């Protein structure tokens, strides 16, 4: 895995180094909006059959890169691999999303929780290594590979609720009624996530992203104590890991726009923004401390191509002048919808690359 990168624009942007244009990738870019993904998933037989097979995971990771001029690949996996390895019994119910057969509801459940043996997640690390090899063409690696994990808090939401939730009543009740139990879960999760991301880096991931998808459901104060503090613990562990110290870390909290300054102090190299945060004002708030990633509303991709290009240009202009120390990675404010017309993504990629090249030449 020593092939030079043919395109390192994404990594340069994360490190706030000069680039010729604004790099672009999409959260959930390998997904159900692509007919080729659906064909591979049908061959795999199930989502877990797809995610837990390195050959299939490699195939779907590369599919969007073969279709679009994206600037990074992201490992195809799921954020719930870690709690599954903890023995909580992950399954995907048709039409209902992920479910755990053994959620954490009692003091006994929480006391028994432990960091899993990383060998139980060997299929993830094998997929990372295989994808890195598959990205090499003619002696160079096409684009960098991103690894990822759910944040300790987001994983805890699924682990306590037993699946997705509309109101997070069960997990937030535990948080307020038994904060000791919640801190115990989060401590175990933070250690597990740190080990998991470090192992992905050891296998070949060149940047990693922490998805704090449900941090924004917390009240101010609770977010800092029960979400941010544990994401920061993960980042600190990665920066202390010899092989991971120079690997950029992206922290994304959906609904976290009010806490950007605190998030920028975690040691993350970049912050992901959802579409509710003004990109220019976010840049003014964090200065040159971190790069920014985002933040197009995914539903823009249902509009005609001309409207998509207009919104892309508006966001790039909103970020402001490209100067030394600035770093911007264009992305959506959350994952791409399965109903997105694939050709509309082509319009977005073209608009971002062409308009940003003009901005970077100024």
UniProtKB/TrEMBL annotation:
EC number of the protein: 4.1.1.37
Principal location: cytoplasm
Gene3D superfamilies reported for this sequence: 3.20.20.210
Broadest EC class assigned to this enzyme: lyase
Binding-site residues for substrate, renumbered to this chain: 28-32, 78, 158, 213, 334
Entries under PANTHER family matching the protein: METHYLTETRAHYDROFOLATE:HOMOCYSTEINE METHYLTRANSFERASE RELATED, UROPORPHYRINOGEN DECARBOXYLASE
Name the UniProt record assigns to this protein: Uroporphyrinogen decarboxylase
Native source organism of the sequence: Thiomonas bhubaneswarensis
């Amino acid at each position: 895995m020593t092939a030079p990168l043919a395109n390192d624009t994404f990594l340069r942007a994360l490190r706030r180094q000069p680039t010729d244009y604004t790099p672009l990738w999409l959260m959930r870019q390998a997904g159900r909006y692509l007919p080729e993904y659906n064909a591979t998933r049908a061959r795999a037989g199930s989502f877990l059959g797809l995610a837990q097979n390195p050959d299939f995971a490699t195939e779907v990771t590369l599919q969007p890169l073969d279709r679009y001029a994206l600037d990074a690949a992201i490992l195809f996996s799921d954020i719930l691999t870690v709690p599954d390895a903890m023995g909580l019994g992950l399954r995907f119910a048709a039409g209902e999303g992920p479910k755990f057969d053994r959620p954490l509801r009692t003091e006994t459940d929480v006391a028994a929780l432990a960091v899993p043996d990383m060998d139980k997640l060997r299929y993830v690390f094998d997929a990372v290594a295989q994808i890195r090899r598959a990205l090499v063409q003619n002696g160079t690696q096409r684009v960098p590979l991103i690894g990822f994990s759910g944040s300790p808090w987001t994983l805890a939401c699924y682990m306590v609720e037993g699946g997705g939730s509309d109101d997070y009543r069960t997990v937030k009740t535990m948080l307020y009624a038994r904060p000791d139990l919640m801190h115990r879960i989060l401590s175990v999760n933070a250690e597990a996530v740190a080990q998991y991301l470090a192992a992905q880096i050891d296998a070949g991931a060149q940047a990693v992203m922490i998805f704090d998808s449900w941090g924004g459901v917390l009240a101010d104060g609770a977010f800092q104590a029960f979400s941010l503090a544990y994401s920061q613990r993960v980042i600190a562990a990665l920066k202390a890991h010899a092989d991971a110290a120079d690997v950029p870390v992206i922290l994304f909290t959906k609904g976290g726009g009010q806490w950007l300054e605190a998030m920028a102090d975690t040691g993350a190299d970049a912050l992901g923004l959802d579409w509710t945060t003004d990109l220019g004002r976010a840049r003014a708030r964090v200065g040159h401390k971190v790069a920014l990633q985002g933040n197009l509303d995914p539903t823009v991709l249902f509009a005609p191509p001309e409207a998509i290009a207009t919104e892309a240009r508006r966001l790039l202009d909103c970020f402001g002048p490209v100067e030394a120390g600035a770093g911007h990675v264009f992305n959506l404010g959350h994952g791409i919808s399965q109903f997105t017309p694939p050709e509309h993504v082509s319009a977005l990629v073209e608009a971002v690359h062409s308009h940003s090249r003009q901005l970077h030449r100024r």
